[in-house]
Design goal:
Length: 461
């Protein structure tokens, strides 16, 4: 089952591609979010700028208007602590009431890394003091103990890679677990579809994630089986009807032929009446041959005709059929010329002798039937590429390209002898085609090199 592994590979490929794209998307999102976090610069940069912007005058320390606007927009309060006294000597107007006005050295160290009254603080160095900015309590989060093991930092790339691979492995396991039911459901579905194409009856268990599809396949199989049974009944009825009609016609037809034969030889009848009896006898023979052909064609179509292949000499079989026709052609209206190489005395094939004789007989009779004014018939047998080729040609009226196309490609040949009726002719050729197909051979119908009609029977040696 090549389709299921291929499906699994595709799922895994989609999974890996999705994981990579998801990781790439996350990195891009975090990068964009990081840029948007500090559009005006980091708090450390801001506090250094504020410390430099704070100037000392005769009236005390003064912060320029632009810097005050920046602090106001960010809702940030600021204080300036004197280096000597550790007291606040300058502050902004929005300083919360609970902020201390005097700091010890330990308090100042806490300002640099942490909070004052839950306000995240940032410290910058000014003239003879330090500038402290206090941001809103929900503006930033600060790590109080930013200390990391050196080995951890040194092996951080490897650690990240291991964590990434573990994540990918975990995602893969989850993915395979989730899709396991789908894979299990796909296999019987694929097998069921394959069986449907071969005509076998299919029953797929209706469970799993593809229950609905399995149900549809089962219903389709039942529909096809029902149609198959109906078709078999119709074909059996048709075959039985042909066999029955053939049987029922034989008895009265035999009586007609018997009486016509007696009338033909009755000396008391006039010559015209004897000719009429001869016509009746001739047409009755045509009806008998047609009935036999219909019966044989039906049996070959439904594999009811027993085939008994044996090793036979095709050259001898064709010669025997030719001799029979030559003996019947009293007027020499349809002379047959043997075109086989004299050195070829045998061409052995595994065939049913009677059926092969019937096929060659039909081909020669076909040339006779379609050339009422007479024609010359050419027969040949040759061996080529482990195939025996039997060719029957004539120099008669032949057939048009369109007619030959129909004879080669339609199962029931539409071919007219005259312009009065569009009859279904070519039953003899249909039987020939069925006989050769039963022997795993093929038939080629084409224009003859002698100007008429040509049929080649190709049978494997």
């Amino acid at each position: 089952m090549k389709s299921v592994p291929k499906l699994i590979k595709r799922f895994i490929g989609v999974l890996l591609l999705s994981t990579f794209l998801l990781l790439l998307l996350n990195v891009a999102i975090f990068f964009i979010i990081g840029l948007k976090q500090t559009p005006s610069g980091s708090p450390y940069t801001t506090v250094d700028e504020m410390a430099q912007a704070l100037t000392k005058t005769n009236k005390g320390y003064v912060l320029d208007a632009e810097s005050q606007s920046v602090l106001k927009d960010e809702n940030v309060w600021a204080i300036f602590i004197d280096n000597d006294t550790h007291k606040v000597i300058w502050r902004t107007d929005n300083l919360p009431n609970n902020i201390p006005m005097e700091y010890s050295l330990s308090d100042i160290s806490n300002l640099t890394i942490g909070y004052v009254k839950d306000y995240p603080t940032y410290v910058g160095e000014g003239d003879n003091g330090i500038m402290v900015l206090g941001y809103p309590q929900n503006r930033y989060w600060k790590s109080m103990w930013p200390t990391w093991d050196y080995n951890f930092i040194a092996h951080l790339p490897q650690t990240i890679l291991v964590v990434f691979m573990c994540n990918v492995l975990l995602i893969l396991i989850i993915y395979l677990f989730v899709t396991g039911a789908l894979i299990k459901s796909v296999n019987p579905i694929v097998n069921g579809l394959k069986s449907l194409t071969s005509g076998a009856r299919v029953t797929v268990k209706e469970k799993g994630v593809l229950t609905e599809l399995a149900k549809i396949i089962n219903e389709t199989s039942e529909t096809l089986e029902s149609q198959k049974r109906i078709l078999e009944k119709k074909e059996t009825a048709r075959a039985n009807w042909i066999a029955g009609v053939s049987h029922d016609i034989r008895t009265p037809l035999s009586m007609v032929m018997g009486y016509a034969g007696q009338l033909e030889s009755d000396a008391h009848l006039t010559k015209d009446e004897q000719k009429m009896a001869t016509v009746i006898l001739h047409q009755s023979e045509k009806m008998r041959n047609l009935i036999n052909d219909l019966n044989l064609a039906s049996k070959l179509e439904y594999n009811m005709q027993p085939i008994n292949p044996q090793k036979e000499n095709a050259v001898a079989i064709v010669r025997q059929v030719i001799v029979d026709f030559i003996n019947m052609d009293i007027e020499d209206k349809y002379p047959i010329e043997w075109k086989t190489n004299d050195e070829l005395n045998s061409c052995f094939v595994q065939v049913d002798k009677d059926l092969l004789k019937r096929a060659v007989n039909n081909l020669i009779q076909n040339s006779i039937n379609h050339n009422k004014n007479g024609c010359k018939i050419y027969a040949s047998v040759c061996s080529y590429n482990n195939e025996c080729i039997i060719a029957i040609d004539d120099n008669g009226v032949g057939a048009s390209d369109e007619q030959i196309e129909k004879l080669n490609n339609t199962p029931h040949y539409m071919f007219c002898d005259d312009n009065t009726l569009e009859q279904r002719h070519g039953l003899g050729l249909l039987i020939v085609k069925q006989i050769i197909a039963a022997h795993n051979g093929r038939i080629i119908i084409q224009h003859s090199q002698y100007g008429g009609f040509s049929v080649k029977l190709i049978v494997p040696v």
